[in-house]
Amino acid sequence: MKLTNYSDYALRSLIYLAVKPEPQALANISDIANSYDISRSHLTKIIHQLGQLGYIETIRGKNGGIRLARAPENINLGILIKQIEPDFALVECFAATVPKTDATTQQGLPITLIDETADEIANEPLSVTKQGCVISPACRLKGVFFEALTAFVSVLEGYTLADIINNKIELKALLS
Predict the structure, then answer these.
(1) Model pTM?
(2) Least buried of 49, 87, 112, 132, by fewest C-beta within 10 Å?
(3) Residues of 130-162 as b/e, b for ≥16 C-beta within 10 angstroms?
(4) What is the pLDDT along the chain (176 residues), one digit of tens a residue?
(5) Which residue, 50, 21, 15, 64, is CA-closest to 35?
(6) DSSP state, residue 164
């Protein structure tokens, strides 16, 4: 499992906001981008989504900026990653293209394991493009991958932002 830069930058942004000398003071996207040497335009999209999800508060205007909308101990890393990571399909037989409203989520993850037997019952021939792999109907590897993925997310769910910023002094020094 590899997280996207999007998720990495979202976590870094939350860390930056959580270790500011004055937590209620407003920061701006340029400060975060400069601290991490990352693209301001890419970060703008991330900050927008974090605002929509309620993780940060955005204030518009001349004296505007951003700050955490929740206490660090109320920001669960696993829940955050499940909300912002676009693709949990580790292998082709994870149906990542199914819309979230139509998909049955497994362990809270926005994926569905393709059920090849449903197609066989409907007398529809299985095609390699549909199932992704010729051994998919008999393959047990996808179950192993799914178990590994849920373990990965489960570990993240055991931590909050507060857990990863308990060395605030070091982090502040590095981000200054």
Answers:
(1) 0.77
(2) 87
(3) ebbeeebeebeebeebbeebbebbeebbeebbe
(4) 678 899 999 999 999 999 987 878 899 999 999 999 999 999 999 999 999 999 999 998 888 899 999 999 999 999 999 899 877 766 666 654 333 443 344 556 655 444 444 444 444 443 334 546 777 777 788 778 888 888 888 999 999 999 999 999 899 889 87
(5) 15
(6) H
